[in-house]
# Entry
Amino acid sequence: MAGEKVAEYERIKASYNAKPNGADYLFLCRSCYAGVVRFRQADGYMSTPCGPHTPIPPASFAARVDEWHRRTKGAEFARLDYRDAISRAKPGDLVYCDPPYTHSQAILYGAQTFRLADLLGVIAECKRRGVYVALSIDGTKRSGDKVCDLPIPNGLFEREVLVNCGRSMLRRLQMSGQTLEGEGVADRLLLTY
Ligand SMILES: C[S@@+](CC[C@H](N)C(=O)[O-])C[C@H]1O[C@@H](n2cnc3c(N)ncnc32)[C@H](O)[C@@H]1O
# Structure
């Protein structure tokens, strides 16, 4: 069975890479390793291997799609660089940033050129012109024995809350068979207001 799953995954990945399309992409997102969609920088080839988990059943996935269809009604989606997106915000608007996490995602999401320091500069500019910003970023890992050290300027953020994200998906897969105790993950939510 496991062999069939991998073969089918590779077939759909090859189909996507030959001709990128939404249906294949959706399947790959739900079934690839740790849900981490990784593209080669050189040619954009989707290279993530098949995940060891059993993908979400089609009926459960369909229910989620219906729910998100309801929640996102009226929303406008745009694919553009964060600098362009943020420049559209007006005083009093709220910008939420969920950038690639600096300690674990440098090679993911085509984020090789992303620099957190640049984003922090843009956020400082937002604060100056009255645009509110919420930023989620690496928090504690491994039950809090390491708090990720980030180059955040003093005074940029007024508040910080830790958001419990449950178990780390990557660690869960890496530790298969071992206990999960002590592998909780928290993200930091930093607010300029
Ligand atoms: C942590 S993920 C965001 C996940 C998303 N909030 C979600 O829940 O699915 C970081 C995202 O930043 C995007 N990204 C990287 N560089 C960017 C840039 N310069 N401008 C806009 N987005 C960028 C990546 O493609 C990736 O989708």
